Amino acid sequence: MSLVLVLNSGSSSIKFQLVDPTQHATDDPFASGLVEQIGEPKGKVTLKHAGEKHEVEAPIADHSAGLALAFELMNEHGCGPADADIVAVGHRVVHGGILFSAPQVITDEIVDMVRDLIPLAPLHNPANIDGIEVARAILPDVPHVAVFDTGFFHSMPPAAALYAIEAETAAANGVRRYGFHGTSHEYVSKKVAELLDLPAEAINQITLHLGNGASCAAIRGGQAIDTSMGMTPLAGLVMGTRSGDIDPGIIFHLYRSAGMSIDEIDQLLNKRSGVKGLSGVNDFRELRKMIDNEDQDAWLAYNIYIHQLRRYIGSYMIALGRVNAITFTAGVGENDVDVRADALAHLEGFGIKIDPERNALPNTGPREISTDDSAIKVFVVPTNEELAIARYAKELAE
Ligand code: AMP
């Protein structure tokens, strides 16, 4: 079996999967795992393979040590580079700026270009580069491919991509909307075209990626024309811990009047806001339990979340003019029956009718949840970014 190693490297962690690019989206990968707490006194590597979970704890000095330890654990359990036929490595790279619209076979030049983009993603791109360099050193004989989270949104027209701030300042500092979760929106939107049995070029759709991070996209004829995330993944929808859209004047106010530093405001808006900031929890399963127990903060958090989501859905219906499908994906979108029902409630006048029974079915795979007479079809499509990255990597490696 030809497998692709998919790596998602963060500042203190590496998520890894060994994926058969021909597998179904809902199948478990051949192997998967996580290297955690890199650079801290206690580190951990976990591995899932053949229905079993394995774990080692050891200090992990850096990404190189982390990946080496992961490979050791995989080899020990018969699913590492020693036994598995790894034909390519796919790397998730968060920021491709305006340089990259499509996945790239990684060369030294590409790494330099990703490095040039560090000012746009200071927390993410350095970790992605670490992962790339370490993996290229350990697996030098297979092609490595970079898949950019921003790539799918490269097609956005200037009216959607640019902010109304002084043009020279914006251009000089790379200030524009880039969008994120692109691999997921693209993967899901292609699946929707298959479900409708129509070419992607013939349909307009809205995709809602609702996970801990959340974003939505307006897609015309297979091309993204707008998205809710902006220059950074902080913009747009209310998320698990991120605020989504706020009046930028709030930042000046907190700085000047509340005496908060820029780093404190950054932490506040990224880590202590969104549903968690309002209710104390960011997991929608816990939020639901609190709502069932009549917790007022949880109820308010949920309503703010839904209100913002409906705002975006409405604006994308106008932006697209004609909409064939609206699709939910990611942890919340795939599993939370109430979020889906409330996001699209009372829109019969716009041709959107959810079937409550279909909506309540468990998350077993791509499915339609609208009624047969709903003019706009509503789907749930499980996303699988690793599989999408593996497929790109295999395709470009050939
Ligand atoms: P993701 O970022 O796509 O992995 O989504 C993670 C989030 O999905 C979690 O924080 C939960 O809020 C949500 N989630 C996962 N499973 C469920 C479920 N069964 N019901 C409701 N929400 C869920």
Can you lay out the helices and strands and say which pair or pack?
Elements: E1 2-9, E2 14-19, E3 31-36, E4 44-49, E5 52-57, H1 63-76, E6 85-93, E7 104-105, H2 108-116, H3 125-138, E8 144-148, H4 158-161, H5 167-172, H6 182-196, E9 204-210, E10 214-220, E11 223-227, H7 249-256, H8 262-271, H9 274-279, H10 284-292, H11 296-320, E12 325-329, H12 330-335, H13 337-343, H14 356-359, E13 367-368, E14 377-380, H15 385-397
Parallel strand pairs: 1-6, 6-8, 9-12, 12-14
Antiparallel strand pairs: 1-2, 2-3, 3-4, 4-5, 7-8, 9-10, 10-11, 13-14
Helix pairs in contact: 1-3, 10-11
Bound molecules: adenosine monophosphate.
Active site: 149 (proton donor/acceptor)
Binding site for ATP: 15, 209-213, 283-285, 331-335
Family: Belongs to the acetokinase family.
Number of helices: 15
Largest sheet: 8 strands, mixed
Beta-strand percentage range: 15-25%
User: Judging by the overall fold, what is the CATH architecture of the largest domain?
Assistant: 2-Layer Sandwich
Short descriptors:
398 residues, alpha/beta, Nucleotidyltransferase, domain 5, 2 domains, eight-stranded mixed β-sheet, six-stranded mixed β-sheet, 15 helices, 14 strands, globular, binds adenosine monophosphate
